């Protein structure tokens, strides 16, 4: 096993070194929980490729699974706007993961929960409903202390995935080389360190359970945002059990009418910025596979392994930047904040007007009071703008640690809204969410959310 892992690490190092010249693999785009939408087994995994032993897992993860696959997933909805060399490199990271054999998955459950899954759960489906980069998901039924049966989703981590990701992260400097292709003035050290820390945390399902429970508690009884409850008694470092949710997939939503798509888009937008401004936290991987959709704009949010928690100081900086750029339109003040935050080199030989024009592009959807329609072309143009090395600003801009996942959140969100071709007055919606404005509701969803917030505050005051 040790020899196999060593060979795997060497192979991974060689693959990373060749990333810039390779294009390979096909992207399935399936999050671990995406297929919860149906009671039918909708898995399209090749049974002949099942991984029967930890050795096979290690070898398969050496085929660019683990951390490098996660990086490919994180950029999967940004591809159309990336520079060609960077896009080709990321394309080479996309490979669908084969599942573990039922016996191997059962052995992980036995090791983590103390008994075979058929004894731990009232019912256990040995066939996984999905396989992702670091684990796979099974349906099960759990009998509670009250004797009531509850359908649950059980995420089981691949044995040996921690060694595979550790091997990837030892190659993190190569990631910096790739990122330099996108940002001419980028110092990738802090960015790589931030990504490394977040991916390492994702290996511990106990941390994911804590994150998910925090979001579930905050959004409990929300009118259109739902986060599945965690079953703490059956969750460990390598097994995560939570409420099983049925709903519609992203592909389903794309066939719905404009009103339904607009409602879903507004919910995602509100979830992103309500979480950010109120909880100072957000999932760093906004991806269609992490959502389940219900009619009327109700959305279930899944997968909280890659959560970033921000400090009060960091949030104050973010809020100040938004206020100066989108509300006050104060280019000089905005530049000063950029320099103070380390996003722009001090005394960079570019004019303040150029700085304002460059960064204002990111705030355009919320900079004016107007109804707009997001499009894939517009979303891609923002990504291209971000990675435009011809801009004089790009030569002097970088991404400090605190901004790594803010950037990913924004670009990922814009891409999703563009795919939905969502229409709405996002300036007015944003004003409801910005703490420095806290405007009155501008949509029916805003009214429902305001009523929920009022009930939440009343309950907190009563305690």
Describe the structure.
With 463 residues, the chain is an alpha+beta fold. Helices cover 49% and strands 10% of the residues. The strands form 4 sheets. Strands 1, 2, 3, 4 and 6 form a 5-stranded antiparallel beta sheet that branches. Strands 5-9-8 form a 3-stranded mixed beta sheet, covered by helices on one side. α13 packs antiparallel against α14. It is globular, with a radius of gyration of 22 Å.
Any key phrases for this structure?
49% helix; five-stranded antiparallel β-sheet; disordered N terminus; alpha+beta; 463 residues; 19 helices
The residue ranges in which pLDDT falls below 50 over 5 or more consecutive positions are 1-10, 12-48, 61-65, 91-96
Provide the gyration radius in Å.
22 Å
Task: Compute the number of strand runs.
Answer: 12
Structural class: alpha+beta
Helix content: 40-55%
Give the helices and strands, then pairings.
Elements: H1 2-17, H2 54-61, H3 66-74, H4 84-91, H5 102-113, H6 117-120, E1 123-124, E2 130-131, E3 135-143, E4 149-157, H7 161-170, H8 172-180, H9 188-202, H10 205-218, E5 225-226, E6 239-243, H11 250-253, H12 258-279, E7 281-283, E8 291-294, E9 298-301, E10 307-309, H13 312-327, H14 331-341, H15 352-367, E11 372-373, H16 376-386, H17 404-420, E12 423-424, H18 426-433, H19 444-462
Parallel strand pairs: 5-9
Antiparallel strand pairs: 1-3, 2-3, 3-4, 4-6, 7-10, 8-9, 11-12
Helix pairs in contact: 1-7, 8-9, 12-17, 12-18, 13-14, 13-15, 14-15, 16-17
């Amino acid at each position: 096993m040790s020899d196999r892992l060593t060979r795997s690490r060497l192979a991974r190092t060689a693959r990373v070194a060749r990333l810039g010249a390779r294009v390979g693999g096909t992207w399935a785009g399936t999050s671990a929980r995406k297929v919860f939408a149906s009671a039918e087994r909708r898995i399209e995994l090749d049974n002949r490729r099942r991984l029967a032993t930890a050795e096979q897992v290690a070898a398969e993860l050496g085929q660019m699974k683990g951390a490098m696959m996660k990086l490919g997933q994180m950029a999967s909805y940004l591809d159309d706007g990336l520079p060609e060399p960077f896009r080709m490199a990321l394309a080479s990271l996309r490979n669908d993961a084969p599942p573990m054999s039922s016996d191997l998955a059962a052995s992980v459950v036995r090791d983590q929960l103390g008994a075979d899954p058929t004894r731990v759960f009232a019912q256990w489906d040995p066939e996984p409903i999905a396989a992702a980069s670091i684990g796979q998901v099974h349906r099960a039924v759990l009998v509670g202390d009250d004797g009531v049966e509850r359908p649950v989703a059980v995420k089981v981590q691949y044995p040996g995935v921690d060694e595979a990701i550790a091997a990837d992260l030892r190659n993190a400097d190569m990631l910096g080389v790739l990122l330099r292709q996108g940002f001419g003035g980028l110092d990738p050290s802090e960015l790589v360190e931030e990504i490394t820390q977040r991916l390492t945390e994702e290996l511990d399902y106990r941390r994911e359970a804590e994150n998910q429970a925090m979001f579930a508690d905050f959004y409990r009884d929300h009118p259109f945002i739902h986060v599945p409850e965690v079953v703490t008694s059956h969750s460990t470092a390598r097994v995560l059990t939570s409420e099983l949710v049925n709903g519609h997939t992203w592909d389903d939503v794309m066939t719905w009418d404009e009103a339904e798509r607009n409602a879903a888009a507004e919910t995602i937008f509100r979830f992103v910025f309500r979480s950010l401004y109120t909880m100072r936290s957000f999932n760093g991987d906004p991806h269609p596979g992490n959502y389940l959709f219900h009619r009327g704009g109700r959305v279930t949010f899944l997968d909280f392994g890659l959560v970033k928690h921000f400090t009060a100081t960091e949030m104050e900086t973010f809020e100040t930047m938004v206020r100066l750029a989108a509300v006050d339109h104060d280019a000089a003040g905005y530049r000063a904040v950029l320099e103070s935050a380390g996003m722009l080199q001090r005394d960079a030989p570019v004019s303040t007007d150029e700085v304002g024009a460059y960064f204002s592009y990111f705030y355009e959807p919320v900079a004016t009071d107007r109804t707009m329609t997001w499009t894939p072309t517009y979303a891609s143009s923002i990504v291209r703008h971000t990675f435009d090395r011809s801009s004089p600003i790009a030569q002097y801009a970088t991404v400090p640690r605190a901004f790594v996942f803010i950037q990913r959140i924004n670009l990922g969100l814009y891409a999703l809204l563009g795919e939905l071709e969502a229409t709405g007055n996002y300036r007015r919606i944003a004003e409801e969410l910005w703490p420095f404005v806290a405007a009155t509701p501008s949509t029916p969803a805003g009214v429902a959310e305001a009523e929920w917030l009022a009930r939440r505050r009343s309950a907190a005051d009563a305690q």
